[in-house]
Amino acid sequence: MKFVEVIDGDVGMLQSTGPDDKITTERLHPSRFATRLRDINRLPIRVLKVAKAAPDLSRAADVTVDKKTYHVLNYRDSGLAAALYIDSFNNLPERVTYTEDDPIYGDTVNEIAFSDFKDRDGVRLPDTISTSLNGKKIREEHIRTLINNPKYDEASFAIPADVRSQPEVGEHIVSQWPLRRVIIGVGYEEFGREQKVQLDPLAPGVYHVTGGSHHSLAIEMKDHIIVVEMPLFEERSLAVIKALEEKIPGKPVKYAVLTHFHNDHSGGMRAYAAKGATLYVHESIVPFAEDVLGRPHTVRPDSLAKAGGNKGSVEGVGDAGKTLTDGDRTVQIFTVPNGHAAGMLAVYLPKEKLVFVSDLYTPGTPVQPGDPNAVALFTAITKANLSVDRIAGGHGGVGPFKDLQKVGSVAKTGS
After folding, report:
1. Do 285 and 153 belong to one domain?
2. Phi, psi of 80 (to 5 degrees)
3. What are the CB-based long-range contacts (under 8 Å, 24+) for 307-311?
4. Percentage of residues in the chain having pLDDT higher than 90
5. Do 234 and 302 touch, CB atoms closer than 8 A?
6. Is the pLDDT of residue 203 over 90?
7. Which residues pair with 76 in a beta bridge?
8. Helix (H) or strand (E) holding 411
9. Which of 105, 158, 167, 187 has the fewest beta carbons closer than 10 A?
10. For residue 414, what pLDDT band results from cuts at 50, 70 and 90?
11. Would you give the distance in Å from CA 83 to the centre of its chain?
């Protein structure tokens, strides 16, 4: 991955280099822009000035950590509560914390810590910078070479007029969530933007919920709806729920199935809990789901926080699977042992001969024969003796089972 970000006043620009070395230039996503500004404001060469300029700057009580005493300054920056910890011995800033929102973790302490200070041309700067979320380190940077006041090309910081004129689409949400997505090279663009929801009929009362990067499956029962997959974040789930209420009025979402715990597939489950839905997850990740539902969301209150919490419930699905039926339509939840994610679930509709799965197989996308995830799904389907005609994906579209069979049966048959 290679990208360049340029910020000039209230405009940001992103230059991305693709696998074909083609460079794409566009306006920086509003949330990515706002989060980068926060990161600039907490750099060691800037954080003291930012804190000093804050109108609400206040001195808190000193704290002692690992026998070291810190002076603590509280203030707000980028709309968030910030705290600066200064070593009482050498008066160097060693930690800065911001309390921000995260779709999964809710109120999240985002901390940057500085250590290994060295003199650089009369300025003491850290050679080690680490970032943690709720006490868990997610990044550590070691500086080998640092040049103060280097010569640079002023033109390289210019943002072209056509980029400046591009509309800014989305909210200025300061959150590590989009940056975590950026750093692993996956989509984040829907964050903080209006959601597009499309209900593609697969059978009477069965809809592939598309319109974005992550899809769901909606199944109409006699007096309720079952939704499979609750991806991304609160806004996506609310948009899907609204679309279903308009399409199938009078039938609430009673059950929702989480295929696996990865953040981009579980970030929207609190919205379904707020509606009182029972959430089905693999039994091994029940503690994870319950923890997500129990976390406080006060920085950006979501629907569950506004509902007072404790609305939905979580039920574990074991290796034997789970069957839901209203006497007419049957929905089977089954497990898929695999190497991508522990506690993976998929859903099968016997009458429609349809399977919904996320990540392990993406219909319409080229897959190499013998791909381990495709093999895992094919093995789970054949082991359970499921009669399948089509597969709908949490990504991609809907494809014939024979396409999976071609790539997933190779390792088993040796053909």
Report:
1. no
2. -115, 150
3. 307/274, 311/273, 311/274, 311/275, 311/276
4. 90
5. yes
6. yes
7. 81
8. helix 410-413
9. 167
10. very low
11. 25
End-of-domain residue from the set 183, 216, 242: 183
Confidence at 120, pLDDT banded by 50, 70, 90: confident
Strands 398-400 and 390-393: antiparallel
CA–CA gap between residue 254 and residue 260 (Å, rounded): 19
Whole-angstrom Cα distance, residue 260 to residue 230?
Answer: 10
**Which one-letter amino acid corresponds to residue 315?**
E
- Look up residue 300 and give its amino acid: R
Query: Is 151 in the same domain as 202?
Result: no
DSSP-derived pairing of the beta strands 2-8 and 11-17: antiparallel
Both tokens of 217, joined, read 């499956």
Q: DSSP readout, 336-356?
A: ---SS-SS-EEEEETTTTEEE
Q: Are the CB atoms for 286 and 278 separated by under 8 Å?
A: no
pLDDT beyond 70 at 412 = no
Q: What pairs with residue 71 in β-bridges?
A: 86
226 and 168 both lie in a single domain: no
Is residue 273 domain-shared with residue 356, that is, in the same domain? yes
| Residue-number span of the structural domain to which 169 is assigned | 2-183
**H-helix or E-strand spanning residue 376:** helix 372-383
In angstroms, the first-to-last Cα distance of the chain is 36
pTM: 0.93
Residue among 210, 232, 236, 121 at smallest CA distance from 396: 210
With beta carbons less than 8 A apart as the criterion, state whether 268 and 214 touch.
no
CA dist 193 and 197 (Å) reads 12
H or E element in which residue 366 lies: none
Condensed to tens digits (0 to 9), the pLDDT of residues 142-169 reads 999 888 888 888 888 899 999 999 999 9
Residue 330: pLDDT band by 50, 70, 90 thresholds?
very high
Nearest to 389, CA basis, from 405, 366, 373, 370: 405
Q: How far apart are CA 83 and CA 63, in angstroms?
A: 12
